[in-house]
Design goal:
This protein has about 180 residues and is an alpha/beta fold. About 35% of the residues lie in helices and about 25% in strands. The protein has a five-stranded parallel β-sheet, with helices on one face. Strands 4-3-6-5 form a four-stranded mixed β-sheet, with helices on one face.
Length: about 180
């Protein structure tokens, strides 16, 4: 079942949200591919990822009720995914999760067989994209860029340093090949 779970990871500023949004727009309405909506302890941002804003107390209540499939911490925020977001896997469909490189070993233990897509970009481009977001101080941006993570060992690596449409085409072609 977990072999149809696609976990997308990469450094902040690599363009994961952009690629996932454009991939979703490219798909036929009946495509057996679902995008898990993350819960994040951050206010909604109309220009960013469409997530479900939650408080730490709300996450704690969801955890206690058993409603969460995955949860992790990154950059001073808490992230989680509802267990119900994985329901399509039980129907033989695919689920895409915007994940975390640090959480990946735990996620792989919880979901053996998941597929991992790593999105990368050159450091100067990562910095420029993070600066354009204007969410953090210069020190916080540098801390993000210096963050050490374990090797990802992805099933697919996308270098998002040009036209995002190229990466979306490569991602879609890879996904189609996984279905054979």
């Amino acid at each position: 079942m977990h072999r149809r779970l696609i976990v997308v990871v990469g450094p902040s500023g690599a363009g994961k949200d952009t690629l996932l949004k454009r991939w979703r727009e490219r798909l036929a309405p009946a495509a057996p591919l679902h995008f898990a909506r993350r819960l994040i302890t951050r206010p909604a941002d109309p220009l960013g990822e469409r997530h479900e804003p939650v408080t730490h107390a709300q996450l704690q209540a969801l955890r206690a009720s058993g409603a969460l499939a995955f949860e992790w911490q990154a950059h001073g925020l808490a992230y989680a995914v509802h267990r119900e977001a994985l329901a399509p896997l039980g129907r033989g469909e695919w689920v895409v999760l915007n994940g975390s490189r640090d959480h990946l070993p735990t996620l792989r233990a919880q979901a053996p067989g998941c597929r991992v897509v790593e999105v990368t970009a050159p450091p100067a481009l990562l910095l420029a994209r993070l600066q354009a977001r204007a969410r953090e101080s210069a020190d916080a941006l540098q801390a993000r860029l210096r963050r050490e993570t374990a090797p990802v060992q992805p099933d697919l690596t996308l270098v998002n340093d040009g036209d995002p449409a190229e990466c979306v085409r490569a991602l879609h072609a890879w996904w189609l090949a996984q279905q054979r």
